[in-house]
Amino acid sequence: MLQNPENCAVVRTVGYIGGKWKPIILIRLLNGGKVRFGKLAVQMPDISRKILSQQLKELEEDGLILRYSYMEKPPRVEYELSESGKTLIPVLKAMYDWGIQMEDPATRGTWDPIVK
Amino acid sequence: MLQNPENCAVVRTVGYIGGKWKPIILIRLLNGGKVRFGKLAVQMPDISRKILSQQLKELEEDGLILRYSYMEKPPRVEYELSESGKTLIPVLKAMYDWGIQMEDPATRGTWDPIVK
DNA sequence: CTCATTAGTTACTTATATGTTACCAGTTAA
DNA sequence: TTAACTGGTAACATATAAGTAACTAATGAG
């Protein structure tokens, strides 16, 4: 995880949810319910499956998501926000709102998975 | 800055304030007023002056802080949160509170520049 | 004259994050 | 019997972030 020499709580939070992909993964799981690995991969075309797998494993190790693996062939694995992960919702909301404010109107995207 | 292929607002926010040092710098400037470069350097013993300088420049280029350079020798430079930077306060607060929740009690630090 | 002062920069090195490609296993359908 | 399905992993390559050491310039103090 991100180094944190001064043991700053904000840096710690960045370590848990920062980076290029973790916010997107978390937002995909925000609406609740289990989501399959393959569905996440389809929803995020630009992330490689290796990185997706790696990020999911880190989120699971950090206790933010739960992983359900069914012993079937072909395999089926589902992910879901944990109780601890749900406490992130107001944090993600604050970061999301601020990021919207800072968005260049000319480059404005339509990507808005936080719908409610 | 951090790549953001899906143009996600949360990732954008991480790009502005993420990393190992930016949260700490911003928190140091939260209480308002101008702070000299050297004072920041003393308050953050583990950051090299080169990196501190670089991070301050990025924050300034992003419009989050203001830089006042007085033409004196030896030089004097002061930094201050901009109006745009002040809009970060609720975001940092949310991230700070969450980070405190996640802190391992055994490793609990005493570092708490958000005093009020 | 010489040294300390301040806020940097330049060149170079190391660490961390992210990415590409190829490969695997057990079952079902063609 | 051959291919497709799924959720990975291993080996390798690159990109970004962070760190180190040496150096600069104008003035004042000793």
From TrEMBL, chains A, B:
<dbReference type="InterPro" id="IPR036388">
    <property type="entry name" value="WH-like_DNA-bd_sf"/>
</dbReference>
<dbReference type="Pfam" id="PF01638">
    <property type="entry name" value="HxlR"/>
</dbReference>
<dbReference type="InterPro" id="IPR036390">
    <property type="entry name" value="WH_DNA-bd_sf"/>
</dbReference>
<keyword id="KW-0238">DNA-binding</keyword>
<keyword id="KW-0805">Transcription regulation</keyword>
<feature type="domain" description="HTH hxlR-type">
    <location>
        <begin position="8"/>
        <end position="107"/>
    </location>
</feature>
<dbReference type="InterPro" id="IPR002577">
    <property type="entry name" value="HTH_HxlR"/>
</dbReference>
<protein>
    <submittedName>
        <fullName>Transcriptional regulator, HxlR family</fullName>
    </submittedName>
</protein>
<keyword id="KW-0804">Transcription</keyword>
<dbReference type="GO" id="GO:0003677">
    <property type="term" value="F:DNA binding"/>
</dbReference>
